[in-house]
What we know:
By secondary structure, the protein is an alpha/beta fold.
Amino acid sequence: MEPETATDALVVVGTDTVVARGVRLPVAAAVVGGLTILQRALRSAQLAGCPRIFVVTPDADAVRRLAASDPVLTVPVHPIERDGPTDSVAAVLHELRGRLPERVVAAPADRVLTPASFQRAVAVAPSAPLETLEAAVRRPSGLGPVIRTPADLREAGSALLRSLRKPLARHADGPTAFYLNRPVSLALSRWLVGTPVTPNHVTTVALLLGLAAAACAATAEWGLLIVGGLLLQLSSILDGVDGEIARMRLTASRAGEWYDTICDDVINTAFMIALGVAAVRRTGEPLWAWATVAAAITAVVLASLLYRELARHGIASHNHLRWGFEEGGRSAALARVARPVLVAFSYIAKRDTYTLVVLALLVLDRPVAAFVFMAVGNAAVLVGFAVRRPSVAPDALREGIAPPAHPTQKAVPEGDGRM
């Protein structure tokens, strides 16, 4: 489906069943990653930009109830009653050609569908000959197998979790997140996604843990410094859980991303100030008090500048920015020398890595060094901003952001959906 062309979606729900937790139920009603197969299909079609969703189903009333109760769904959902398996989407299109729009992208609700399942699907005309439809309608892209058995259902859940893994890259996961934080956060997300806990709940808990970590660090006592470092590391791990839950439930939003970014910056600044207080208490030198004030001002100025850039580009995460050294310099010789150093610094400056470095320094009872590490890193980023203002990364991670609310009714009676 071309992004500039709004094409309606057709989701085919069959009579296929599967045993889940000892109960036999329709495949479309099986839960994977906190959503039923059908609910995920509907949200995916909406995120793919489909203006209307037609659902061929043996239970039209159930689809209407789902559409009316789902707070995320805002596009119109048109249920069309029909019994039968999901084996041949082409046959369904051909049979219902008089009740469907002129062109649709179609997918069966018997697997874990994603927005890409509809974006990559070929738009077809239901009025075309059956042979043409069978040639055009291919198995849609999705996560995991077609669900027919409990083993298929488990594999679908595992595939969904695997899809949450980010690559080891500057704009994705740093080394610490990739090898340490992400496996832990995915295990937590798998457990939490089936509960009422929301991504914002997790972000708030991470914020409270970060502030508690700062309070511990400010005491300058070795034992509490270690506790503070561990709490900061736990907060960093939870920083991945909120996004994972949002992506599994397809509820990511720009507001939630902003909340996460601001909370991260509050934690970082509070912990750096706490380390400055610890440095003053350890040394008794007023120099460290002035250094702490300067570091706090630097952090506020940097955050303000970065927020302005994020707002200007319509994004909400620092990871979406591309810095000057990533765009290539004017001097090739200078780039060969400076770029590797700056790339290494960019990885160290990521929250997952510097949090682990700070923890190591606190275990070694070096709060002053930890403060210098955070303050100098902050100042270096501000200098980099002053030298060359960052732009938007070409691979900015914008998947899963909900579209604006659709002004029309969400579920309509069965019937001809064409205008």
